[in-house]
Amino acid sequence: MDTPNTPREKTSLRRNFFGALWHGAFLASGTTLTQPTTVIASFVADLTGSTVWVGGLAAVLTVAGVLPQIFVARWIEPRRHKMPFLLLAIYLRVVSWAALAWLIFAIGSERPHLLAWALVGLLAVFYAAGGLGGVAYTDIIGKIIPPGRRGAFFGGRQALAGPLAVGAALLVRHLMATVGYPNNYALLFAVATASLLVASLGFWIIREPPRTDTNRHIPPWRDYTGQLLGAVRQLRVLVGVQILTGFSLMAMPFYIVYARQKLGAPPEAIAWFILAQVVGGVLANLLWARLVDRCGSRRMLVVCATVSTLTPLLAIGLGYLGWPGMLPVIFLVGAVINGRSVGFSSALLELAPPAKRPTYSALDAVLTLPAAFLSLLGGVLLQHWSYSALFLLAAGFIGAGAVLTQWLSPDSHSKGASQ
What we know:
This protein has 17 helices and no strands. It has 419 residues and is an all-alpha fold. It starts with 6 loop residues before the first helix and ends with a helix. It has one domain: Growth Hormone, Chain: A, CATH 1.20.1250.
């Protein structure tokens, strides 16, 4: 979508911008209640007592969200409208959260391993639907948000979500302190279901422009493979940065487990960690959005990768203060998570030709799939290593990713602005 010039185009931009922000705000409040690095990690640890389960589930969920994308992209890309596929994905996610909440109430704590496997299955559905929605979402946002407003959108989406996410974090604190296990988690998932339903209303507001080119046939796999190879060449440096800096994802689920198992954090401390993560993400968005729109995604990612490198080192140093010393670490985790979302989303939109955004989005997800197994690797390593050794390993690879970020195209911001 070009920069709007007519009053009608400006009205359409405002409507679409508002609808996308509405969705992002309520989605963020829902995901705050079910953070993989806090709530899910803590729930799995309570269910199984195993770091391998914590890391393995994170890997399974990422794979479930990624593998279908490359097949879905080929089929969705020629369609005039992508919104029906996005709405289908949203409501599949709603059903999976609702079913999980009901199962926790029904099964309780009597059969923890059955509940753990149900958690794996339903979260796999949730993340697979997220993969379907992500392919459509990238194309829709690319069409309705002009290049010069994307930093403001991605940053503003998180900033608007801040008050709702803070409220969600306080709700977590209340439920974890007053409701017994495992019904406290069931209530969190039930409220998250309602939040996703409210978030979906934002996409009913949006008026998605149709695809305008005449080439709308689904390409045969032989031709599509050539298209994929060309996209790989364009994405190779970006993917390298994502994988290396993705070692931050290896450490993230274990900050909470470290605080619970080694530093004596009580169950209600989870709410303080969530609050720290939310506040860190909201405040950092003021920086991320400005950097993307003023300096481009490359410079923004350099700053984000540097902060990400320091985070596991701080976890080692501040752990001597007990579990409250982890609050600044989780604050930076929130900043890094949102920074990765803003920076890599913007960089991908800058690199992808408008007609091929679904393919580039899906291929980027598939190529970065190795990062999905880093949390599983972390869980395995913790069977033999200390938490400090794991955090040092993560910091080394993230630092290498920060260096590689310098090789991202410095012209990507200007090229994106001209699309």
